Amino acid sequence: MWFLVGTATPLCLIGVLITQFRTRAPGAETFPQLMLARFGKRVHLLFCFITILNNLSILTSVVNTGSGFYSVISERVTFELAWIITVIVGEICASVGSMSDILPFSATIFVYLLTMGLVITIKVFFYDETGLLGKKTYNDCSRSIEKVYNATHAVDLSNEKDGDDHLTMRSYFSLEMGLCKFLARPTVEIAKRLLGPNGLFALFSLYAFIVTTATIMQIFSVTKILTLDIYAVHLRPFRVCYEVNCCIFCGKSKDEKTRPKDKCLCCDPANCQQCQEDLKSVATENINLPLSGWS
User: Fold this and answer.
1) CB < 8 Å & 24+ apart, contacts of 66-69
2) Contact call for residues 79 and 65 (beta carbons, < 8 A)
3) Rounded to the nearest 5°, which phi and psi values hold at 253?
4) Could you write out the three-class secondary structure of 55-120?
5) Which has more pLDDT, 242 or 3?
6) Residue bearing the bigger pLDDT, 284 or 100
7) How many Cβ atoms sit within 10 Å of the Cβ of residue 109?
8) Which whole-number Å values give the CA distances from 271 to 250, 260, 276, 277, 279, in the listed order?
9) 52 or 112: whose pLDDT is higher?
10) Which residue spans traverse the membrane (predicted)?
11) Does residue 51 contact residue 31 with C-beta atoms inside 8 Å?
12) From residue 279, how far is each of 16, 248, 271 by CA, in Å?
């Protein structure tokens, strides 16, 4: 029920939100671009960071839920295996979509390599007991369990009046998460008993489709933030200055009262020979384009 409400509510509101977003900002591709136009680059960078963390947290929750479903079918399915398979399938779908000019191929491959490198690095170097670094980190984490227990116990001592206890099931959040996991697992068991192998495979395909689709959407979101917001605005912007008196080539001011060091020395685009040649070449290419898809 929780997953149904959490999935159906955004689908019901997405049409209204997209309509308002496109009406108020027709040229914006992402929501942080609204923050850039209204509050500046610092707030825009903050919203980009929050958006990326939000998408990654949603992606991790989706893969974790999917691995829980898959582990009921086979106990050999782990979180790492479900994560890697889901990301690979999602990146293949995103790459196929990029061939249709839906998403830049280079950005998709960048996110794929980044995600795979992150998963492999964390698994091999931090959670593998055979390696030196992994063994040291594993031992440090084992020793830190007592520290975490003492810190949690100290927090619970200060919250005795509220009646919540993080070390037991008396916390409302722990109770909610426990009910969600308890009610989600019998679904696969019931399908296995009632529908047989074919029904179990159909339910598995449905879950795999949902997890993969959600993963692709989050990959699209993260890629857009990295390319359209962080790279195009903060790393290599097309224009350094957006004021009226700023030059579109060098970003310096054209005002006569500006210091000679900060004054623009570029020629006017109407008198620029290279600009005129570029405009002529673009116009010639547009004229020579075929009217249909047949050459």
Assistant:
1) 66/207, 66/208, 66/210, 66/211, 68/181, 68/184, 68/185, 69/184, 69/187, 69/188, 69/204, 69/207
2) no
3) -85, 150
4) HHHHHHHHHHHHHHHHHHHCCCCCHHHHHHHHHHHHHHHHHHHHHCCCCCHHHHHHHHHHHHHHHH
5) 242
6) 284
7) 14
8) 16, 22, 8, 11, 12
9) 52
10) 43-65, 77-97, 103-126, 200-220
11) yes
12) 40, 16, 12
Site of tokens 């293949």 = 92
**Residue 220, Cα to own-chain centre: how many angstroms?**
7
Residue closest to 204 by CA, chosen among 192, 214, 213, 221: 192
287 residue type, one letter? I
Comparing 116 with 98, which gets the higher pLDDT?
A: 116
What is the Cα–Cα distance from 67 to 179, expressed in whole angstroms?
Answer: 17
* Phi, psi dihedrals of residue 122, rounded to the nearest 5°: -65, -40
Asked whether 229 and 44 are in contact (CB, 8 A), the reply is yes
The type of residue at 82 is: A
Q: How do residues 185-220 score in pLDDT, each as one tens digit?
A: 666 667 677 777 666 666 766 776 777 677 777 777
Both structure tokens of 154: 């100290």
| CB distance 251 to 239 below 8 Å | yes
Residue 107, both tokens: 């950005």
Q: Dig out the tokens for 170 from the structure.
A: 């008396």
